[in-house]
Amino acid sequence: MSLSRQGRRPLWPRVLGVCALAGAVALGAGSGCSGPEEAHPELVAHALANPVTATFRDGVNGYAGTRDISLSENAPTASTGGAATLFADGDEPAGSGKDVSTLLQWNLASIPSGSTLQSVTLTVRVTNAAKNAYSLQALTREWAEGTATWQKATGTTSWEEAGAKGASDRNSTALGSLQASAVGTYTVTLNAAGVARVQQWVDTPASNFGFILASTSNTDGLDLASSEAATVADRPQLAVTYLPPGTVGDPVLLAAGDIGDCATTQDTATGNLLDGLPGTLALLGDLAYQSGTPTEFTNCFDPAWGRHKARMKPTPGNHEYNTSGAAGYYGYFGAQAGDPTKGYYSYNLGDWHIVVLNSNCTAVGGCAAGSAQETWLRQDLAANPRTCTLAYWHHPRFSSGSHGNDTTVQPLWKALEDAGADLILTGHDHNYERWKPQNAAGTATANGIVQFVVGTGGTSLRAFTTSQPANSALRTASNWGVLKLTLHPSSYDWEFVPIAGQTFTDKGTGACH
Question: Which residues belong to any copy of the Calcineurin-like phosphoesterase domain (predicted)?
Answer without folding.
Answer: 254-432
